[in-house]
Amino acid sequence: MSSNTNTSKKTKVKNTPPDKHDLEAMSLFRYELRKFLRVSEEIANAAGITTLQYQLMLHIRGFPERRWATVGELAERLQAAPNGTAALVSRCESAGLVTRKTDQTDRRQVQVHLTAKGERCLLRLAAAHKAHYGSFGWVFGEG
Questions:
Q1: What is the mean pLDDT of the chain?
Q2: Where is this region: Disordered (predicted)?
Q3: Which distant-in-sequence residues (6+ apart) come within 8 Å of 96 by Cβ?
Q4: pTM, whole model, 2 decimals?
């Protein structure tokens, strides 16, 4: 019941009508985000992979303090269902981009790692993406 109360309080705070400045800022954010996503699609497609495959590799390699992630962690990062993420991992595995490894301390857990091919692909695509982060300087601590 307390989580509903917290949700209600959050909703009330966020329910104030936006003013013109808010709408302009939200429009600009969506415009810049869509431009970036379109460029990202073009970069990934030119490399012969999907943007989801690129995002999966990025989240594996970009996971804090390690070079691998679990399917559950990847699902959270992708904001996707775990079964859909597992299917994406399988497609990436078939393409030679990732490999699954059983966790040595918890045999129930499976780690997803980049292969050498996946690492090369990710770094090439990430470099192309980095050039387009321009207005997102805060991503690299520049803003």
A1: 87
A2: 1-20
A3: 115, 117, 118
A4: 0.80
